[in-house]
Amino acid sequence: MFTFKKSVTALAIAASLGLAMPAMAGNNDGNIAGTVVDARTQQSVSGAEVILKNIATGYTKSLTTSANGSYRLGNLPVGTYNVSLQVAGYEPVSQGDITVSIGATTNVDLNLVAEGDNIEKIEVHGSAFSMVDVTSSESALNIGAVELSRIPVPRNLTSVALLAPGVTQGDARFGNYASFGGASVAENSVYINGLNVTNFRNGLGFSNVPFEFYDQFQVKTGGYSAEFGRSTGGVVNAVTKRGSNEFKFGANVYWQPADLREQSPNSKKTNGEYYIYNGDDERSEMQGNIYASGAIIQDTLFFYAIYNPRDISNDYTNGEKTTYNEATGDDAFWGGKIDWQISENHLLELLAFSDSATTSTDNFLYEPRTYNSTSFEETGGDNWSLKYTGYITDDFTVSALYGENEYTLTTKSNIQNDCELFYDTRDVQELGFTSSGCATSNDYIVEDGNDKREAMRIDFGYILGDHEIRFGFDSETNTSGSVQAYSGPDGKYWFLYDGTPGATLSNGAVIPEGVTQYSRSRLRTVSGNFETEATAMYIEDTWTVTDNLTIKLGVRNETFDNKNGEGETFAKIDNMIAPRFGLAWDPTGEGDSKVFVNIGRYFLPVANNTNVRLSGNEYDVYQFFELEGVNVNDYNGIPYLTAINGAQIGADQFNADGSVPDVSGIVDQDLDPMYQDEFMLGYQAVIGEGWSWGVKGIRRELNGAIDDMTISHVTQAKYGCDHPGGGGYVLGNPGEDMTIKADTDCDHEVDTFVTLTGEELGYPTATRTYNALEFTLDRQWDDVWSMSASYTWSKSYGNSEGLVKSDNAQEDAGLTQDFDFPDLMDGAYGNLPNDKRHQFKVYGSYSLTDNLLIGANFSLQSGRPITALGIGHPNGIPDYGDTYYLCTADCATDDPTYAFSPRGTFGETPWIARLDLSASYTMEFADSYEVNFRADIFNVLDAHSTTRVNEIAELGEIGQAEPDFGLTSGYQTPRYVQFSASIRF
After folding, report:
1. Which residues of 783-794 are buried (b: 16+ CB within 10 A; e: fewer)?
2. Domain span holding position 761
3. Higher confidence at residue 128 or residue 847?
């Protein structure tokens, strides 16, 4: 039987539940909302003064309930709050431990008991939270530093993202970054305290901030609001720690000893030689953190400062066990935050940090161990942001942010001008290995580069009855400076090949009779400063239609303006309208279940890499020569080759001629943006005290893509002229018509605007489709244990992975080998590299005693599709690149026979299982300081599953089998151990 006392109890408990609502949630803050009612009559109480107080900083803000008894306050700094009110004729009400999380709204309903009323009082606190947010249609994982401290997670932002369902680890050659919803790893955005810190050059990576500096994370896997854009993957939204009225000081150290790190297996060729040698790999890491925080002025001005010294060493060999490398890095990170609570209506916060770092790598001959050279890689830079928050009225808020984000990309060597680079692919090698010469880096590039982002945004929030309206504007000016060349005295990279007389080379020339070996040199330089301006406006309304139904309607309008090295616009796309719709319905009205729908469109800008490569003064030329022999030379005791070249074979092959091209001749004048449409439908419900489960279906479709395509095959057929610029590449939308200025009189200058149809060009439309079903089961922390589990079935398929290409580890964002020639895309449709069909994830923790805590993190996922790549095609041999045809007969004739080998039809790599465990012991002394000792073991079972294989099935010439095809080229990270100790005052 329903009783009044029980109803009050239920209301009180409901008041303690923090509901993570999307309404008015800024990108680095949170909100509190609720309703004040008379506990006996259940009538709303208007005009009541609600007082919010941040327990740590003393920040206090008062506001008045509306006519329907509701109150809302957005743009609150994350943290723990106390909510109280006093109304004449009622008992005072106060609730503490109300947690405000990043990007979410905590719901706190307050029930007033009349003075003298004998209703039983229920004392509750807001530290508990709702297992089901019945107002949100977004897909996101909110997790804080406290929760992460209970489970074994590698101390980096990507590992946090990988806890979310549907997020997988991408190709290790890109840095092991996260792939969201089948997208490439270069399509994500990362924000720290509202500042975008994503690498805008090619989308790979972000500013490197130590784990200790972070306070909370929000991993958005889909359905995010109109406030967020420039991403077709996912968004990681993080906030750092801040000072409080209590002075705090602490230090910790994290150590990964080399002696407790296992090695991956070796991979051997059929002849017994090493393909991948890991037997001498050795890595150790020591990091410390020293931090302090407190009040400069009580209740008003606060600071947080951190210093993070690092000592990292990584020793490894090349694949063939011919060179040995010792890489070290010991640059310290520093960071800090200042918060100024000017008044209850005005807040100011300053963030500053530097992640500048230099990694030096000493290179040795493997045996005897002779020093050769030292290379240097410089990364990171200085970063800062200033944010203002103003509460103009109870219903109107404003926030404004300006910040700068820097990233250095400099690679150099102490011998970069001393000798040339050689790559010997011949069957008989004088040195017995392929690579030699004065290498500067793994990709042999000498680069002096730097990127700088200047970001500004202003956001407004307005409450109008049942509508919570948010609107704003943001702008980024992203500048890339770059000077690139190959190392060596003349900047050339030489390749040596076995050849067959009569075979055709990529420059169109035929190998002469009697020539069985040839060389190819490549000279490539790039320089300039390139700018992109990106702006966006948005408006979004979260409408509480009824107590059980919430609808979110939003729209975002974006503009991208990419400029060449002379500051001239070469690619501008505006009026990109991105609608967002979300619906959340509580079918029972009990606040313990919901059905939700989310539909949205998301645009991705043209990466600055495209500015540098396509619109800069890139010079790229191949030359082919008859190879008459080689000289074996010695540098610092290490042998290297020089070629004895005979006659040049054919003409120079110009891939780029060094001039800044006419922008109307390199970009489709009707260029459409790259965008993705997403649809989600899901259900979530509480199934017991502290338990919830959910199911969600997701579909993502890449409906527009941008890439460079050669058009000379069409201009030759129509006008008898190659398109200028070396290779005749134009940026456009594959499969669509193209309007450009072409060379119609063969004077090597563009002169006339023409429209080339999609049918004439012969390229397929770029496609990528992601379908998924996600199942989740969660058990919230109750001071004893917690658990989160998920299973995701997904399928990612199409002919375009996205901005980067895992097949050949090409990070040339927006300008990959895809769509360079029509024949390269014949067979490209299939299961894409980030298609991991099955994913299981389980993580949690258990408190054995008040002092001893254990944690576990387990994942199991299916493998990556395998493709067999050739170099020929029934239409002829493309100038370069991998095809999906393998020659099976008559390969040296004019009429070879091919077998079709579409993408992903050679099976998958093995399943990958990983179990991580942790144990920590905490001791407190006289309430004045706390000491913690901890051990984490990652990949406890030391599993060695293959993550990647060599997919090149032909090498050098069509029909010439690559003997290393299918060999393992990458393993999962082997077992390693991390010890840590910390003290906090």
Report:
1. eebbbbbbbbeb
2. 706-765
3. 847
